[in-house]
């Protein structure tokens, strides 16, 4: 953030520790001991992959025999498996592979291998890549696309294949079984014959690790690519075009998964352009895919500029269509009703659609949570959403149970994560951002998994012995106490710290768009900009208070939630503090549950976030003896920048809101280091030079 932020100085470590660049992710190689693998005689690339992984990573008894068994078992669901110290049994070849990775993970993290069945919570566990054909990545902070590039776009190199294989292996190790290869803001080019050739090449490399390929498609492709005059989903020529295109895809990729569609949203074409419904559009594509077993994932991220509350629109559009979608359509719903904010209540669509398959969509890439700079472990946010009770079928109707088929029967279940993967050496731009890729996969497999356990696993797999230390019990105990425990706590507190220093107490969407959703901008409202794209639309700060009134006397968004939750959220006395300003516009002097005024509580949250990041810095500095030099220095520098930016968030928001509250910043809060004028000046892009007058 240039001159307003704490400068970055590279601090090289001189301890001579072994450097690692993070490319191995949580799959860092270990010296394996000999193992005999007894596998089915079936000629299968998946089984061959499982056998190879066992032989390369076995940490158990030297000379042990491990048996891989393909056998139907009613207790095993989807690609689940039964694990024992002697081997893995599964109903599918994917299940064998996932069981092998689980066996190896337990060996490496010191967890016991007990005789148990492990079933995935969701049938499909997908990464959505917002990658474009020119190699750019929308909301990507880890370099260019691993799938596409601008120059020599269709040439498949050995380096491409190696990278795709490493990517597929990482996904398989955490149970991810599907990848959408391109941006939801799709280019019709992706369905051209030339690009489908590259899709085939990618699918061929992903297949040995059980990763199925999907594509995002542009709804107007029949017009833009096929030369038709319309993309009306009920037009016979359009139906015929899509059927022909689907047939072409399956000739190239016989196990193709299906389509992801963003339509009638943010200017993207869709069925509503022709007076049709989302169901009309989704069903037309679903019918084309049905003979091949393909699926349509139809995104519910829709909103228009003419509603008084953007948060209500997806519910209003989709609930009337409940039960009208084909059984190979899944409605893909963002975790919150607005847009991947640092904290949102869960989308009211979860549980409200009772006759339609619904899947949650989480954002792994950190669009609103610090890009590739801020350390933000996101598992607590996803766990918070998945375990939220919708009450749609009584108490215990959690988001997870409403989407995995436990509450309402669904032909298919799925969970998607918007990927943070790119060409950066460490894949994710920030070494700790790898933990979010890891945690997403593990939560998609087991939606009841705990964030702390996943952090513990990831740290052990990613950092244990990274400094070349001894593996004796005393050394291991020292590492657990001085690295594992404090860094786990750092990770678990990291997302809440960002909420505190950026958008506490239910404030949301108050970032600056000037810096691509990084940094504060509660003032940001350029002339002629859509109101629902500007922060003042959401915080509604004025002399009489702050917050968005979504109560029954406001926009009535609370009524989209089931009772008793709707009444709880409607009353500021019972609404949880973390959602208070999401649902209520309250006076600056409103008395909080703590006894403090809203203004003082807000100020203390901002300051608490800053102090927390400074503590993260101290924790990481003390971890230096246990981390390789390269990754230690990289994370240290990121934390320094984050610390400066946290101060900027605090100063900008408090000084801006103080213009309306006219109240002093509490004495316990660190005084601002910047002026509001300087921050706004930096945030305002310079005007383009005026063209010279023509004679």
UniProtKB/TrEMBL annotation:
All residue ranges annotated as the Glycosyl hydrolase family 67 catalytic domain in the record: 111-427
Keywords: Hydrolase
Domain Glycosyl hydrolase family 67 C-terminal: 428-668
Superkingdom of source: Bacteria
Signal peptide annotation: none
Coiled coil (residue ranges): none
Gene3D superfamilies, A to Z: Alpha-glucuronidase, C-terminal domain, Chitobiase/beta-hexosaminidase domain 2-like, Glycosidases
Biological process, per Gene Ontology: xylan catabolic process
GO cellular component: extracellular region
PANTHER family attached to this UniProt entry: ALPHA-GLUCURONIDASE A
Protein name: Alpha-glucuronidase
């Amino acid at each position: 953030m240039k001159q307003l932020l704490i400068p970055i100085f590279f601090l090289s470590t001189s301890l001579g520790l072994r450097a690692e660049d993070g490319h191995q992710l949580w799959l860092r190689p270990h010296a394996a001991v000999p193992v005999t693998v007894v596998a089915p005689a079936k000629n299968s690339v998946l089984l061959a992959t499982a056998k190879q992984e066992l032989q390369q990573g076995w940490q158990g008894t030297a000379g042990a025999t491990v048996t891989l068994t393909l056998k139907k078992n009613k207790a095993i669901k989807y690609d689940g498996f039964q694990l024992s110290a002697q081997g893995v049994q599964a109903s599918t070849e994917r299940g064998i592979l996932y069981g092998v990775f689980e066996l190896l993970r337990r060996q490496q993290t010191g967890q016991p291998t007990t005789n148990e069945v492990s079933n995935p919570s969701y049938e499909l566990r997908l990464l959505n890549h917002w990658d474009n054909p020119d190699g750019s990545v929308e909301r990507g902070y880890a370099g260019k696309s691993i799938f596409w590039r601008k120059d020599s776009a269709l040439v498949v190199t050995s380096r491409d294949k190696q990278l795709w294989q490493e990517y597929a292996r990482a996904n398989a190790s955490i149970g991810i079984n599907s990848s959408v290869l391109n941006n939801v803001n799709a280019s019709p080019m992706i369905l051209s014959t030339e690009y489908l050739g590259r899709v085939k090449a990618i699918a061929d490399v992903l297949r040995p690790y059980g990763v199925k390929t999907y594509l995002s498609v542009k709804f107007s492709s029949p017009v833009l690519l096929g030369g038709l005059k319309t993309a009306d989903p009920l037009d016979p020529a359009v139906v015929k075009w899509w059927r022909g295109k689907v047939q072409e895809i399956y000739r190239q990729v016989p196990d193709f998964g299906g389509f992801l569609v963003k339509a009638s949203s943010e200017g993207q074409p869709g069925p509503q352009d022709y007076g049709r419904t989302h169901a009309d559009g989704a069903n037309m594509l679903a019918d084309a895919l049905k003979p091949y077993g393909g699926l349509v994932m139809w995104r519910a991220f829709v909103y228009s500029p003419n509603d008084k509350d953007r948060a209500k629109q997806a519910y209003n559009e989709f609930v009337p269509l409940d039960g009208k979608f084909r059984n190979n359509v899944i409605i893909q719903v963002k975790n919150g009703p607005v847009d991947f904010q640092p904290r949102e209540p869960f989308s009211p669509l979860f549980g409200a659609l009772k006759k339609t398959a619904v899947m949650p969509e989480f954002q792994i890439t950190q669009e609103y949570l610090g890009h590739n700079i801020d350390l933000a472990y996101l598992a607590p946010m996803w766990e918070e959403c998945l375990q939220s009770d919708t009450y749609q079928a009584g108490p215990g109707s959690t988001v997870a149970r409403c989407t995995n088929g436990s509450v309402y029967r669904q032909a298919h279940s799925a969970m998607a994560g918007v990927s943070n993967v790119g060409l950066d050496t460490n894949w994710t731009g920030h070494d700790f951002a790898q933990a979010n890729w890891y945690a997403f996969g593990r939560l998609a497999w087991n939606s009841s998994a705990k964030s702390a356990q996943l952090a513990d696993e990831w740290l052990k797999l990613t950092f244990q012995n990274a400094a070349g230390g001894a593996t004796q019990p005393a050394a291991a105990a020292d590492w657990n106490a001085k690295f594992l425990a404090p860094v786990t706590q750092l990770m678990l507190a990291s997302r809440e710290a960002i909420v505190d220093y950026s958008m506490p107490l239910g404030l949301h969407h108050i970032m600056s768009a000037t810096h691509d959703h990084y940094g504060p901008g509660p003032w940001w409202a350029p002339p002629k900009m859509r109101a629902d794209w500007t922060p003042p639309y959401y915080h509604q700060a004025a002399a009489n208070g702050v917050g968005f009134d979504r109560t029954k006397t406001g926009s009535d968004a609370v009524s989209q939630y089931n009772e008793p939750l709707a009444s709880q959220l409607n009353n500021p006395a019972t609404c949880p503090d973390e959602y208070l300003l999401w649902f209520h516009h309250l006076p600056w002097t409103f008395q909080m549950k703590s006894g403090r005024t809203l203004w003082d509580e807000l100020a203390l949250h901002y300051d608490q976030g800053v102090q927390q990041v400074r503590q993260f810095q101290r924790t990481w500095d003390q971890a230096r003896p246990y981390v390789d030099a390269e990754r230690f220095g990289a994370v240290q520098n990121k934390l320094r920048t984050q610390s400066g930016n946290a101060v900027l968030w605090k100063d900008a928001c408090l000084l801006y809101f103080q213009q309306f509250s006219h109240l002093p910043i509490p004495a316990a809060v660190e005084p601002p280091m910047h002026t509001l004028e300087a921050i706004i000046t930096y945030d305002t892009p310079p005007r383009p030079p005026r063209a010279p007058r023509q004679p």
